[in-house]
Automatic annotation (TrEMBL):
Membrane topology term: Multi-pass membrane protein
Domain of life: Eukaryota
This protein's name: Allantoin permease
Lineage of origin: Eukaryota, Fungi, Dikarya, Ascomycota, Pezizomycotina
Subcellular location, record wording: Membrane
InterPro entries cross-referenced by the UniProt entry: Pur-cyt_permease, Uracil/uridine/allantoin_perm
Cellular compartments per GO CC: membrane
MF (Gene Ontology): transmembrane transporter activity
Protein family: Belongs to the purine-cytosine permease (2.A.39) family.
Keywords: Membrane, Transmembrane, Transmembrane helix
Transmembrane annotation, as ranges: 94-112, 133-152
Length: 214
């Protein structure tokens, strides 16, 4: 099985040493190691080609554990809390959340079938529906959704960090000064913990998913 490798300091700072280093960092490699590049390099790269067999390291228990961790998150807990807030009992909220998750799981499983069979990702699958250029629209929408979702998760993580820091530093953190105007709708403490949470997340998103199954 693969092994998750925590990114080193040099690996994380190398892309910011120069403009060329940054461009090389954001550019996807052409072809997987040991495999010939498929098709035109304009439309194919390492991330778009079918996953090589040696990278298919996730087994029957990895995916359920991943989805469990995905739902057992801040947003997952907020689902039940939000339902209680609008007037449902905790029993009704629990049943509603289970039904909603079950219906969503059906859609997820159906959408995952092409990936399981052909080992391709969403951007490539979108081409079969809308063509090479039309797929850009769906990729763009998916990117926007990911940015929003990632921001929400990081915001919640920042709030948790704020609670932790308040427990550690007490009134010193509680009375942390705010230098932002009211119209910003965020204070300095929230912004600081947001970026702290963001930095903590970087090492975990810098490695390939095939090495995160342990």
């Amino acid at each position: 099985m693969g092994k998750f490798d925590m990114a080193s300091r040099h690996r994380m700072t190398a892309p910011f040493q120069s403009k060329d280093a940054f461009l090389n960092f954001v550019k996807a490699p052409q072809g997987n190691e040991g495999h010939a590049t498929i098709g035109d390099t304009k439309w194919s790269n390492k991330d778009l080609e079918p996953t090589p067999e040696e990278h298919r390291t996730w087994t029957w228990y990895n995916l359920p554990l991943y989805w469990f961790s995905n739902k057992f998150s801040l947003v997952g807990w907020n689902t039940g809390a939000s339902l209680v807030t609008i007037g449902l009992t905790w029993q009704q909220s629990f049943v509603s959340a289970c039904i909603g998750s079950f219906l969503a799981a059906i859609v997820v499983v159906l959408m995952a079938r092409p990936g399981v069979k052909y080992h391709i990702g969403f951007p490539v699958l979108a081409r079969s529906v809308m063509g090479m250029y039309g797929s850009y629209f769906f990729v763009f929408i998916r990117a926007i959704v990911c940015i929003i979702w990632y921001g929400i998760q990081t915001f919640y993580a920042g709030n948790l960090l704020s609670v932790m820091l308040r427990c550690i530093f007490g009134n010193s953190w509680k009375n942390f000064g705010n230098t932002l105007p009211v119209r910003a709708n965020v204070n300095s403490k929230q912004l600081l913990t947001f970026f702290m949470a963001w930095l903590l997340e970087f090492p975990f998103v810098s490695d390939n998913a095939c090495r995160m199954n342990k």
